[in-house]
Amino acid sequence: MDRDGVDRALARLGAEHEAVETSLLALQDHAGRRLLEGAGLTGVTEERWAAADADITRLWTYFDAYSGALAAAREVRERRRWPNREDLVELTERLRGPGVLIAGAAVEGSVLAERLSLAELVTRMNGLYASSLDVVVAADAVWSALPARIDLLAAELHRTRSLAHSVGVRPGEHPSGDDLEAITAELAELRARVISDPLAFWLPGAGSSAPGGGRPDTGRYDRAALALEDVRREVEAVLDVRQDAEQRLIALRDVLSRADRTLAEARTARGEVLAKIAASEVPAVSGPPTVLQEQLAAAAEHRRQSRWHRLSPLLESLEERAEEELRRARESLTAVTAPLAVRAELRGRLDAYKAKVARHGLAEDPLLIERYDAARRMLWSAPCDLRAAEQAVLRYQQAAAESLQGTGSGAANGAGSGGTGAGTPGKEDA
Fold it and tell me: Quick one: average pLDDT of 112-119?
């Protein structure tokens, strides 16, 4: 190396020395490192910090050796303004050769001492610094993120537990009470684990080799937060029940009362149908389910005793079943009264054709009078045979159509369209 090369090398090594020193001092003062030194560590953090702490000690050993070698080289350079050949040879050896003896700092303990060049020392220090900083930054990031969030969630948990207790949602009495106990235990265990083993909650960044590349693993925290949110919604539902329980009970009684009245009407209608309609299958009508009334009484008792956590699911079940019972009662009434509806339709059709015939001056036609009287007797007699009555109405319609065609009125366009399917309701009801 000539004089200019030596001066450039000394300047570059001096800048590297300053940068390494600044980094080491920053690492020494890093809040994460101080926390790691004072914490009772466990698990993967204990293992990695033990290795990182040894690396930091080795770093300072390397740095001291680097500083001494650099100072010695500067002393040689400062002997004279224009160094002679011997000075340049010595400086070249100091600046480029493996002239730095490192005692007791061999990597992985392979040798008791080794000689390194200043460039090799810088590379070695950079590697140790990056791995040590990665441990410090990762632990500090987890400690900065998770404990505070866990504490906030624990405060929300405390408020939810107090509210749940006030409405009877307690462990052993309600599933959400058991969930609150489980969440409490999970948060306590999670916080203790985060404090003692933060690196167990660190996810390294994919493809990133920079120190601290990654993010805290919040999976367990997120699951606890979601579980608490579910419990909170359940408690709010119980609170809503407490506020409007009386109105919902009144509405339930009204729905069940309407269902009972509809079933009573269906039973009455069934007796009427059986008396008035012959050859027709009429479905049976069941009585009101007593279990719903019993559950309604239990719901009222829960309200009187302020057992809101038991009242909430019972009311939801009762409301659904009460509406279903009302639908069933209405369907029974419709099915039972179907034959009466068919008879009413046949009566209306018969009278409509009679009026049509009269408008065309055929009211005194003997055949029409005979067939009308036959159909009317069937429809207004009890019990009424719907199938025979329908046939009688069809015969009257056909006779009326033929008579209207004979008069040239051309009004027989609906003569054969009156099939009501009187037998069909009986088949469906069966």
Answer: 74
